[in-house]
Amino acid sequence: MRRAVVILAVLLSAGGFAPAAQNPALQGPVPSRVEGPAPSRVEGLPARSDSLKFAVIGDNGNGDKTEYDVGQQMAAARAKFPFDMVLMLGDNMYGRQDPQDFVTKFERPYAALLQAGVLFYASLGNHDNQNNRFYKGFNMGGERYFSYVKKNVRFFVLDSNVLDPQQRSWLDEALGRAREDWKICYFHHPLYSDAGRHGSDVSLRVTLEPLLVKHGVNVVFSGHDHIYERIKPQKGIAYFVAGSGGELRRGDTHPSGMTAAYFDQDNAFMLVEVAGDELFFEAVARSGTTVDSGVIRRQANQTGATQ
Fold first, then answer.
1. I want to staple 215 with a disulfide (CB 3.0 to 4.6 A). Which of 9, 116, 175, 192 is the partner?
2. Any domain includes 305
3. Which of 112 and 43 is assigned the larger pLDDT?
4. DSSP H or E run through 208
5. What's the predicted TM-score (pTM) here?
6. Sorting pLDDT into bands at 50, 70 and 90, what band is 43?
7. How many of the other CB atoms lie within 10 Å of CB of 202?
8. What is the residue range of 251's domain?
9. In a domain, 13, yes or no
10. Shortest CA distance to 240 belongs to which of 226, 256, 223, 221?
11. What pLDDT sits at residue 300?
């Protein structure tokens, strides 16, 4: 099983963001499968010509000014960081979900990106109509859960609303067959979260986490809680909550020993770059300020420590 080494880098911002290194309350034991030097600072994304670049948004589809502002900021970021795909973590649509709503809650907010050929790959959240998986712009191919490959990364998109035996069996087999360097899963409900409104979905964790650990998943993205949070690696897996792409619950984070960093004072999205055995990430606020950044280094052909 491959092991990920996480080198954390944090950028300080306005209130509501707290890096673990500067808050004793956020310190905790280092998971046994994650090793590495002390936190280091990362200045920006490398934007290498041959790397995989993508953005991440969650809980975005409200059609409000906040969603449009985030969309504009994403387009501005793309001028310097030319990503060609976006992961959608669910709740891609709130409220009414008629044909016109796909225009006002998706096509217009991200018009600049769509016109540039950027592809959005969606997962379903609890507010999404299940039939939205047939909407061409979400690139789900009519499936509740699916997998796809980009460069040296295999993505696994799950429907965490109903993680039935059929889906678990499919995931077990699909993860087992994957031979790409990186395995990244994304779905709506977070296995780990320090938000007060929802928090960790423990029942989902009991069902899903053993499969992620068994097959050496490197990174997991989720939404549902309307904050940004980076969790300290759990059993060798890096977890992110990125559920403030349109909705926001300001001040909803209650840091614990598993909190690495968080931002809950404004809407945010993520930028991610996979270059060889390194995954660089930035969390960017609606204002354009980078509120968190770092790099995850994957070590190939190594076996994780015994749990």
1. 175
2. no
3. 112
4. helix 202-214
5. 0.86
6. low
7. 11
8. 3-294
9. yes
10. 221
11. 64
